[in-house]
Amino acid sequence: MREDHGVDGDAQRLSQLCWMLFLKIFDEKEEERELMNTSYKSPIPDELRWRSWAANEEGITGDTLLSFINNDLFPTLSTLDTTLDAGKIVKAVFEDSYNYMKNGTQLRMVVNKLNEMSFNRKDDRDQFGMIYEELLRSLQSAGNAGEFYTPRAITQFLVDMVNPKLGEKVLDPACGTGGFLTSVIEHVRKNDVHTAEDEAKIKENIQGTELKSLPHMLCVTNMILHGINAPTNVTHGDSLARPIKDIGPSDKVDCIVANPPFGGSVKAGILANFPKTFQTKETADLFLVLFFRLLKANGRAGIVLPDGSLTGDGIKARIREKWLTEFNLHTIIRLPNSVFAPYATVATNLLFFKAGVPTKEVWYYEHKLPEGQKAYNKTRPINIKEFDPIKKWWDNRTEGDVAWKVSIDEIVERGWDLDIKNPTKQEKEIAYSTEELIEMLEYSFKESQKILDSLKSEL
Fold this sequence. Notes:
9-stranded mixed sheet, globular, alpha/beta, 16 helices, 12% strand, 44% helix
């Protein structure tokens, strides 16, 4: 793909790879269905199925292949008229996908390479699952595409602690490439799935929405790789676009696991969907208000939020007041700044809360970098094993060097401010007497004056 001048950057290469992978995986899943049901009818016209034009390595190539893809495949699949769930998935993928490649011969070489794998072979499927996860992780440094990927250790830890059960409705309203959703699938399968009926409940109860087309396509492919053949509950749209007063009992869910976009600004008209007292242009805060509305009584949530959502007055304080008076915000895990680097280097937190019970106290836990490591990076990302001490502490909480609790009375006195630093760390930092501080300040002034005098003489 790098030798094709039409594809520019990792994000486009991954997008190009994904629509081809989607068609191949979809075709192999259809082979399984045809074996089990001889009357099965594909929603894709025969001549456009992967087996018809791609599976034969001696098939069409060059300009003929390019013309077929641009003039037949995409126009037909992006406007597919079907009532079948599988057909709706195909249409949703292709109406937001593009063929970036300009060289039909290079395109044939990519197709032939994909044909060396079979997703009906468990070893190939498992191996590719790991490769796909690595491809998604590479997006973290691919410009704006980095916002779509949450480190695997974060998604797994959040899901483990929220602990969704089979039959519970689980939602990620900003699902990106599907990291939280696939973690939920793996968690529920590991703990609760024993029959085909159990497996069917997973598809029914896991829901996601993604605004942007590339991550939506990546998420759909990710779900299919995880055994959800027609992931119709993963929709392409804006979760903030619906007035929250229209969210009724049938829309409510048992669990929310999410890393809502933060630092962004919402489109015109979105604010009108929220009560005036909570209207803010910070997307993370609006998603938080949405979560309040979507959770069932006794529903639980595990989410990622930046420090900016924990502090501030006005609307931000009113949102936090509602949060703490109507929900039990029982745990805040404070993360190092570099967890989401290089996409974002702001301080972030993992927050866990339950609906229907007001907060009495909030437990904080400061997650520290591994010994000898100064920051997380692409080659040394955060690892799930680092959360083992927190998991041990979770059910038997005690205060210490990295854990502390704050009463609701203190939080109210602070104006509902939740940005509370580690008190033991503060004590270590404030280790100077008044005389020592004055001496340090005087020294600083003297050194500054020397620099100014030197600059003046040079000028």
